[in-house]
UniProtKB/TrEMBL annotation:
Top-level taxon: Bacteria
InterPro entries according to UniProt: Rce1/LyrA-like_dom
Descriptive protein name: CAAX prenyl protease 2/Lysostaphin resistance protein A-like domain-containing protein
Record keywords: Membrane, Transmembrane, Transmembrane helix
A Pfam family assignment: Rce1-like
Limits of the CAAX prenyl protease 2/Lysostaphin resistance protein A-like domain: 143-241
MF annotations from Gene Ontology: endopeptidase activity
Transmembrane domains' residue ranges: 16-40, 64-87, 107-128, 140-159, 180-197, 203-223, 230-247, 267-288
Keyword Transmembrane helix listed: yes
Length: 304
């Protein structure tokens, strides 16, 4: 059983607090390349130092900004490996899946189904509201974006999954000795981590329904499937395909995507619809394909 793999008499909850601090430190170390680049341009080239997060996101050419932000997740992933291996005496496989090895077919299936949905829905939005978009495609910057995104975005999304659906899921399982508490806590914390995104200030707090709902979906498929493979595929497809297809002046990432959304940002049905309609359909598809049963026990049961 996946969540039980992190539970033993030596794996106390205080270790997860210490481990989380070490992972946060790794995250700060990962920001060093961005800070070095900022100081170089401000001290050597004489550019004014950016005074806000939005200014930082627009300080460099978009591909360089994306690279400098995403490279920090390499440091975080190394931090996770160090914490899991040497603080908890576990393998990375043990916080990935209950299977004997990672099922890459599951990762690919999840990635494919969500990538196809994202592409089709984006194209549908474009043709139904063409005045809300402009063509942003530039061949060479887009090609560079594809390379950066394909290499580093899966590292970013996998890092987040290893933290929330792997490490912290098992950590809160150690604390609560049940499954519903880790599911709720990791979903809420995952959503809260996005509260500083510019989308929140533009659309309002209602968008947190989407972020927390997405965390809940990823937690459910991890517990039901006894591993993170489906969550890894979904998250990678969501971020990579979105970065390649659409950007906007108010999104977290400014990219050389194919389209640029120039509409006035607002949150309404488009925020609620995925959580209450699309995600349940996706759960049904996964449940049908992988023969999930005993939902109550897997999502709310006690941990021996």
């Amino acid at each position: 059983m996946f969540i039980e793999q992190g539970i033993n008499s030596e794996n106390k909850f205080w270790k997860y607090i210490v481990g989380s601090i070490l992972i946060i430190i790794a995250s700060f170390l990962g920001q060093a390349p961005l800070l070095v680049a900022l100081y170089y341009d401000t001290l050597v080239k004489g550019k004014p130092y950016p005074t806000s997060n939005d200014d930082i996101m627009r300080f460099f050419e978009p591909n360089l900004t994306l690279f400098l932000i995403l490279i920090s997740f390499v440091f975080v992933m190394l931090g996770i490996f160090f914490v899991v291996r040497y603080l908890h005496n576990q393998t990375m496989l043990s916080i990935t899946t209950a299977r004997a090895k990672i099922d890459w077919k599951r990762v690919l299936f999840s990635f494919s189904i969500w990538a196809i949905f994202t592409i089709l829905s984006t194209v549908a939005f474009y043709f139904s509201n063409p005045s809300d978009f402009v063509i942003n495609f530039k061949p060479i910057p887009f090609a560079i974006l594809v390379v950066i995104g394909t290499i580093l975005i899966p590292i970013q999304t996998s890092t987040e999954e290893y933290i929330f659906r792997g490490y912290l899921m098992q950590g809160f399982g150690n604390l609560a000795k049940n499954k519903w508490f880790p599911l709720i806590m990791t979903s809420v914390i995952f959503g809260a981590m996005h509260i500083s995104n510019p989308e929140v200030s533009k659309m309002g707090n209602i968008i947190m329904v989407y972020y927390i709902g997405t965390g809940l979906l990823l937690g459910i498929i991890t517990l039901m499937d006894e591993g993170m493979e489906l969550a890894l595929g979904f998250h990678a497809a969501n971020n990579l395909v979105s970065a390649l297809l659409v950007t906007s002046d108010w999104s977290a990432f400014q990219t050389h995507s194919i389209f640029k959304d120039i509409s006035q940002p607002s949150a309404g049905l488009d925020v609620i619809l995925p959580v209450v309609v699309i995600y349940p359909i996706l759960l049904f598809i996964f449940s049908w394909k992988y023969n999930w049963t005993d939902w109550k026990e897997k999502l709310t049961g006690k941990i021996a």
